[in-house]
Design brief:
The chain is an all-alpha fold. It is built from six helices and no strands. The radius of gyration is 34 Å and the shape is rod-shaped.
Length: 151
């Protein structure tokens, strides 16, 4: 479709392409997708090794051209912009994974501490129950001394 309107290589076509992007012309999207999608996916994939996520990042980056139409001076600047979008999105994804992993580790560590503390409290309460039982068995005078000194 657009390949007929924008054959590769001509200066005029570059200007027309850049003008359509600046205008937010969604009809140019299939051409940009065909031209840049695979390269953007490959670039993201080289960082994160997650095919589906790399594809999502590439599509999101192409869509951002229409969220905020931008005027580019050249195809090279457009290309740099797209690859910068992909790099930033990929690095943000990695940061998100690290935060999620740290949160999961913190939760499991907290659960382990809680379980450990709970177990310790159960043992202590059983021990105190036994101490009180034994103190109650002492003769009255001994029991009073133990209670005054320790309890």
């Amino acid at each position: 479709m657009l390949r007929r309107n924008l054959p590769a290589g001509s200066t005029y076509e570059e200007n027309e392409l850049l003008a359509r992007i600046a205008e937010g012309d969604a009809a140019i999207y299939p051409y940009l997708h065909d031209t840049y999608y695979n390269s953007l996916v490959y670039f993201s994939l080289s960082i994160i090794q997650d095919q589906q996520q790399a594809e999502d990042i590439a599509v999101d980056s192409l869509v951002k051209l229409w969220q905020v139409p931008t005027r580019f001076e050249s195809i090279g600047k457009l290309r740099s912009y797209l690859f910068t979008l992909v790099r930033n999105a990929t690095l943000n994804y990695l940061k998100h994974l690290q935060v999620r992993e740290r949160s999961e580790q913190e939760l499991s560590r907290t659960e382990a501490l809680t379980d450990s503390r709970q177990e310790r409290l159960l043992v202590e309460s059983d021990l105190m129950r036994l101490v009180y039982q034994e103190v109650a068995r002492l003769p009255e005078s001994y029991r009073q001394v133990v209670e005054m000194l320790y309890l």
